[in-house]
Write a structure and sequence with these properties.
single chain, alpha/beta, Rossmann fold, five-stranded mixed β-barrel, 28% helix
């Protein structure tokens, strides 16, 4: 029997099999800056460096360790990407395509994305957590440019799944957090932070958060038929908002502290179990 051509995801899957990954996963996570401590929660974890997985991104940003973890979390088999690729590292908006395809091939149907973001709202303070309900792709870049199949015409009407958001709010309430911010994330290409005028524009267009990631992943994930939940850990006020004078050092510092609360909420979310879809 003739085998199909090898792809980065099939090669990555083969590597994972040799490392002992034999059971399917139900849920996958991509962790943003400084959030790697979440992997401490896994039972019987298997950890593989991205460098050993074809198609996975290089770890070029401090705060992103560049490791894939697979194990059990609150009774659910999960995969956790400890770090991501950003457009500003290579100029390639499809940099996360092979890794997300690998997670889908492992069986995951739910993808949870986390990031560090700047707040455009005076009352969304650093250290707070926000659900992303929608996004604005200010950069105009799209990871599906060059895809010649009809699957490139992805419907983003509900890119951020309402049932997953409702489940997360429920889990947060059970964990003692009755209120959560929820709003719109605007993607800037980075790596420079936004100017005061750009932040003012973002607010006028309806953005609550600004950041340098997530949106290309959401577009790729919806093409792969993932249900997506995305969360921002607010690490600073955006430039020109209140005391906003962002730096990467501030992002890492606040993210490390805020990860404690985010880990607690994500644990509660996983414990709730999968969302049933008709």
């Amino acid at each position: 029997m003739t085998q199909g051509p090898s792809t980065p995801e099939t090669a990555a899957l083969a590597t994972l099999r040799t490392r002992g990954v034999t059971e399917p996963i139900a849920m996958a996570f991509v962790l943003g800056t400084g959030l790697g401590s979440i992997t401490d929660e896994l039972k019987d974890p298997i950890c593989v460096d991205y460098a050993d997985l074809p198609g996975f991104p290089e770890a070029n940003v401090s705060g992103h360790a560049g490791r894939l973890w697979i194990g059990a979390w609150e009774g659910t088999r999960v995969a956790i990407m400890e770090g991501r690729a950003h457009y500003y590292e290579t100029g390639n908006p499809r940099a996360m395509e092979a890794s997300l395809s690998t997670l889908r091939a492992l069986g995951a149907t739910t993808l949870v994305l986390t990031n560090s973001a700047g707040s455009c709202n005076l009352d969304w303070h650093p250290g707070s957590i926000a659900l992303i309900a929608d996004h604005i792709n200010f950069s105009g870049l799209n990871p599906l440019i060059g895809d010649l199949s009809d699957k490139r015409f992805v419907n983003l009407r509900e890119a951020y799944d309402r049932r997953l958001r409702a489940r997360f709010r429920q889990a947060a309430a059970h964990a003692g957090k009755s209120t959560l911010h929820e709003g719109v994330y605007m993607w800037f290409s980075g790596p420079s932070f936004e100017t005061p005028s750009e932040v003012k524009m973002a607010k006028l267009l309806g953005a609550d958060l600004v950041g340098m990631s997530t949106v290309p992943e959401v577009i790729l994930a919806r093409r792969l038929d993932f249900r997506v939940l995305a969360l921002s850990l607010v690490t600073n006020f955006a430039t020109g908002i209140k005391t906003g004078d962002p730096s990467h050092a501030e992002t890492k510092s606040v993210a490390t502290t805020g990860a404690i609360a985010l880990k607690r909420l994500l644990r509660a979310f996983v414990k709730e179990g999968p969302v049933a879809y008709a």
